[in-house]
Design brief:
mainly alpha; Rossmann fold; Helicase, Ruva Protein, domain 3; Zinc Finger, Delta Prime, domain 3; five-stranded parallel sheet; two-stranded parallel sheet; 25 helices; disordered N terminus; disordered C terminus
Length: about 525
Amino acid sequence: MRQHGTIRSKNLGLKNRHPLSVSYQVFARKYRPKTFQDVLGQDHVIKTLRNAIEQDRLAHAYLFVGPRGTGKTSTARILAKALNCSNGPSIDFDPDEDICLEIAEGRSLDVLEIDGASNNGVDQVRELRENVRFAPARCRFKIIYIDEVHMLSNAAFNALLKTLEEPPDHVKFIFATTEPNKILPTIISRCQRFDLKPIETQTIADQLIFISENEGVKLDQSAAWAIAKGADGGMRDGQSMLDQLVAFCGEHITEENVLEIFGFTSRETVAKLTDHILNKNTVAALEILHQQADSGKELGQLLEDLIGCLRALLVSKVDSTADSDGIPQELWDMLQKSVETIPTDRLLNLVEIFAQTDGQMKWATNKRLHMEIGVIKAIQSLNDARISDVITALAGVHDLSQSTALPQEQAAPAKQVEETPTPVATPAPVVTPSATPAPPTPTPTPKRAEKKTDEIAGGLDKFIDDAEEGSTEITAPAAVTTQAAPAQSKAAEVVAPDTSVEDDFQKDPLIQQAMDTFQASRIS
């Protein structure tokens, strides 16, 4: 007991010497915007709200939509301060007066902040409807702020419709959500919607430098840019990362510290990887990939940075005035030199390949394998033959084949006539109709087939009748040959339809195009 008492006294003395600090606030809360002028990156929203207050055109319901960390809750509180300040509604209010401090700290009885995730039932909405009927206790307006309003159930939304459409004059509704697609259209139609966009990277970097200067911390410009890039448009994310870096690094924060703690990839590494891919250097590209994977870097973030770099190069190919998207100038000049010989469609194909790889990596356990496959496929795609390349090659073959196509077509009929056995000199006129461009007849072959069967049967009269019908189409010399020697007339008649069919085959546009393009020999 005695020893326990001494230990207890020591602990009490330690507690008295080092009291717990309750005044410390993280950067995200300490530097939260207090007035309209403090809101960054949402000029379109702030301007509309300021004009509405100045012109006394206040709506009864507002809906703030945007990703995390873009200022939805801060804007809602600032609007509540502007409406309920001592000289309000006014855009020029004192954020340090009692009413504004109560609203900022969530202590005001007339400004109710409700979490939509935990109050999403009909009973809570019914209770809210009963509450808004009473007049405000101190302020001019009773403001109902529901955060993450998309978490309300459909029944709760329907229970709120009538009150939202025709609320009392002293009530204002403010809703905030990150997923507006889950809100009923009947709710959205009763509100004024404001879409808060992601904050630009440079704006976040400047704010982080401002915070670090006020806190007595030296933050390098490259480190601020790396933090802002990793924040992905959210100011709160960037401030939280800066708070963590101050606890880790102390009074000086460099880019290496940022990359080490959060697993980001430097802009130099991304630029070198992009340059190796554009130069088709597979070994060097995979070596950089393996180094990043072995050092514990997030490959998904590396792939996103790679796609962003390729996108910047693609935009610069189309628009010469486009910026470098934060890439240092010396690295940007190197990439511009590498991309000069690569057409725009090739860059589009690279972006598509890596976008497909990104979709596969999100659900894969072995992300390194998919990343390697994506890099290899991207480099190989730069050597693949495109449709435009094939068309260009075919156009060159067509130019070469024009000088040789005509002599081959003229020599082919003579060669075929020589191959056919003609013991009598009379069949020579039979070839002349095929050489001259005459319209083909679709039914000569069946008639000749009938003539052959009748000739074998030995019907002389029938043979003469058939010869008269065919004489109008063939020629008079053909009839003479049939009278002199039936066997020879058969051979001559066999030759004539073959040449006519071949002439029709050659006159077909598709066959002529194929022969002119590929210099194919005719089927005899």
